[in-house]
Description:
This protein is α/β, with parallel strands linked by helices. The chain has helices at residues 7-20, 24-32, 38-45, 67-70, 105-121, 140-156, 173-179, 202-207, 211-215, 217-224, 234-245, 286-293, 338-353, 371-375, 378-391, 406-411, 435-442, 444-449, 453-468, 472-476, 489-500; strands spanning 52-54, 77-84, 87-94, 125-131, 162-171, 183-187, 192-194, 229-231, 300-302, 310-317, 320-327, 358-364, 396-405, 421-424, 429-431, 482-483. The longest helix is centred in the first third of the chain and has 17 residues, at 105-121.
Amino acid sequence: MASRIDPIEELASLKEESRRGGGQSKIDAIRKSGRKTARERIDSLVDGGSFVEIDAYVKSRETEHGMDRNSILGDGVMAGSATIEGRRVLCFSQDFSVFGGSMGEMHAQKIVKIVEMALKSRLPLVGIWDGGGQRAHEGVTALGATGELMDRLISCSGRIPMISLVMGPVVGASALAAAIADFVIIGEEHGEFFLSSPLETPEVAEEGMSSRDLGGAEMHASRSGIASLVATDEDDAMDIVAEILSFFPDHCDALPPVLHTSDPENRICDTLTNIVPDDSNRPYDMKKIVEIIVDDNEFLELQPQYAENIVIGFARLGGNPIGIIANQPKVLAGCLDIDASVKAARFIRTCDCFNIPLLSFVDVPGFLPGTVQEWGGIIRHGAKLLYAYAEATVPQLTIITRKAYGGAYLAMSCKHLESDYNVAWPSGELAVMGAEGAVNIIHRRELKDAVDPSATHVELVGEYRRKFGDPYVAARNGWLDDVIEPKETRLKLIRALSPLISKRVWQPPRKHGNIPL
Length: 517
């Protein structure tokens, strides 16, 4: 009679089998490439000893192509709950050692379970992606389960914070699933993100383009705009997750965490007094203004290489998290274009979902002109930005540092869109357009008939600036709440934000608005 296997020994054996994943040789190959294993990534992400794994014994149910003989415990993904700097989260990490991290039916169902747990528990979700798309061996079964995963991820959108880390190749429908997250962090060396496999892309197959050129971190950071941030290595990626989460509440009905700061609320920012050039056509760096004003001069910029004419990111004022949107006069004179409009609109809606107040710094001469922009749909994309500001119900504060012209003025959190606290520096210029352009239109006949058109033009421009080239016209009409000294900006903003933290907006019921996508 065969001896009965000791159940404790059997459990230990199965645990060890699950931990081995695709086998030591494949684990060694992953490490040799400079990447970490799925388990090592989870250990790097979460607080030590906090991870509680689920479904470690799940296996593929596929019987074709010898899958029943080659199925592996865990089916290529780790999933569970943990804490990150004391914050409870749900997380998963794809295991590249098991069928190249490809997503089969049970692999996807395992992630579905953890996503549903995150939604029910109302906790942030962090996904570490590293896999070659849907498992071809399982056919439409794998695809169907991936569809279920996408459905659950979309249910989470706007309800709980979601962060995707792309630490290796992520292809096909898996890329779509990862992109649903609020933030996508891509590893600089190994992160690659494709909708179509490089093997199926003509430019790669025929023209010698590399897979990194097609979907590497640099491309997604500067051209597609998919990368919120690029991580220099895997440890940096995990640090970025913790930093982003520090600005967010657990869910959409909670307020973001307030952190103590030793930076005095009444700190005077003398260096702001002369930071805006006297010549209205000279550029300056808006990021310097942001960094001077916010707590401890710490500003987490997102998408820094994409649409650089607008700056977005997180900081704190008086300990309160804030989302910052700022025109950048150093790039395209701060004009709004298609990419900048979409970049800012997406960020505004993300902050609004999770009750993070918005602070806008405005120096915008208008929307970027030209056939490329008009044919590309700048009207529709610019409307997204205006729509996002008008739709937002979080506290909104706006500083006009210099130019605020035309439709771009309206699209940048103006008082008419029910922004809460709008102020300008004395250098602010609120008008339909710049003085020179306005004079050329309004006085074109007078200039045509003038004895000395140049002198007349200078005189008329000066007159227009006296009438419209300062913030006091808008202030007299109540469209600005105040005109302030630049050095008092931090003090004024913190005092204005304090009562607005409890702001609540009632809106008539509707299914949802129809943003001009």
